[in-house]
Amino acid sequence: MRTFAERDVAPNAVRWEQEEVLPWDGIQKLAGAGLMGLSYPKRVGGQARSWVEYNIAMEELGRVDGSTATICHMQNLYPKLVVDDQVWGQVVSGHKVIAFAETEPQAGGDAAAIRTTARPVGDCYILNGQKAYVSLVPGAQQLIVTALTSPEQGGVKGMSLFLVDADQAGVSIARIPEPGFRAHMLGHVLLKNVEVPAIRLLGVENKGFYYMRSRWDFTRGVGGTQYVGAAMRALEDTVEHAKRRRTFGKPLIKWQAVQLRLVDHFSELRAARLLCYEAAWMADKQMRLTQHASMIKTWVAEVCLKTMLDCAIVWGGSGYQELHPIQMRLRNAMAFVMLGGGLDIHKMVLGTEIFGRDFNALKP
After folding, report:
1. 3-class state of residue 190 by DSSP
2. Residues 158-169, buried b or exposed e (16+ Cβ, 10 A)?
3. Helix, coil or strand: residue 342
4. Which of 137, 30, 139 minimizes the C-alpha distance to 92?
5. For 3, 138, 139, 172, which has the most beta carbons within 10 A of its beta carbon?
6. How far apart are CA 295 and CA 275, in angstroms?
């Protein structure tokens, strides 16, 4: 896996970052190596790998390029959803990318507060609403959209999922410039009287929130090794740089201040890595991941961000350059902290998990 990542992905990372479009040549490389189908069943061409094996792949991809690692991760989180095998086969082969459009301007961490509606008309649904911070757009050919089919019941009991073509009438997409993961793409999606056939309803009507929630733990709980791998690579490269770089007649690494800035990160990253692999092992055992997922999203995210920042500081001016690998990894680490559910809400989730539902901060 490391050989593939270093040979086929690493040499292209800066180019993909500069081009700022979905890297289809990279996606084809991932598909050719079987990585786009790691978690998919073999009947659709997938690898049916364990989540521990999946984390190994994410760690190695994360070491060399954050964008392709993120694209790969997002496409491997769909097998639990009820979608036609032909669609999954196209994802596994690298010919199609599907985006998950759930967040809205007023509904981020509070995912049940969406306002997008899906009104049944004959054998179709008419979708209206706006989605924000949707990964993989522009670029993805299809979207899985959350919408209210029973608005009077609210988001938890009245939400459904729909498969929508990104280029169909009524769908408008606007790119959001982002500091990190520039090849993974991020955008807003506007849905205006979008006609979706009833057969594009995924699963059971009004059960969409539960399908979405089951995906959350996997989004955060398996694949965190991507960021640990990036942070460890940054740390290794920084140590080598500090050994070569000389200041005041001796290697930079000999200065006590530099050693003290870096040394604790090795311990923290080792602990973070073990937490991620424990979560993957639990996923393989079909154990509940909510607590581990939020631990990864809070503590592991902060560990990786602090590591990247200290590495950039040791690199000095070089670490401030936009396309320097250290700077690219630092910006990507910011996304881990800020997107996919904020740190504070995940700490509240942890509070409920640890102290009990009677002390759930989200309830009066």
Report:
1. strand
2. bbbbbbbebeee
3. coil
4. 30
5. 139
6. 8
Beta strand pairing call for 124-135 and 117-121:
antiparallel
Residue carrying structure tokens 């949707």: 134
Question: What is the pairing mode between strands 201-202 and 246-247?
Answer: unpaired
Q: Where are the alpha helices (DSSP H) in 285-359?
A: 290-295, 301-315, 325-338, 343-355
What is the distance between the alpha carbons of residues 297 and 55, in angstroms, rounded to a whole number? Answer: 15
Domains and their CATH numbers in the chain: 2-92 (1.10.540.10), 98-206 (2.40.110.10), 224-359 (1.20.140.10)
Our measurement of the distance from residue 356's CA atom to the centroid of its chain's CA atoms, rounded to an integer in Å, reads 28
pTM for this prediction: 0.91
Q: Report which DSSP code applies to 107.
A: B
Helices 256-284 and 51-64, packing angle to 10 deg: 150
Beta bridge partners of 128: 117
CA-closest candidate to residue 220, choices 101, 341, 114, 333: 341
Q: Give the rounded distance of the alpha carbon of 352 from its chain centre.
A: 24
Cross-strand pairs, 194 = 127
Cβ contact 203:81 at 8 Å: yes
pLDDT in single tens digits along all 364 residues of the chain: 999 999 999 999 999 999 999 999 999 999 999 999 999 999 999 999 999 999 999 999 999 999 999 999 999 987 667 677 888 899 999 999 999 999 999 887 788 899 999 999 999 999 999 999 999 999 999 999 999 999 999 889 999 999 999 999 999 999 999 898 999 999 999 999 999 999 999 999 999 998 888 777 888 888 899 999 999 999 999 999 999 999 999 999 999 999 999 999 999 999 999 999 999 999 999 999 989 999 999 999 999 999 999 999 999 999 999 999 999 999 999 988 888 777 788 888 888 888 888 877 766 6
Contact 170, 193 (CB under 8 A): yes
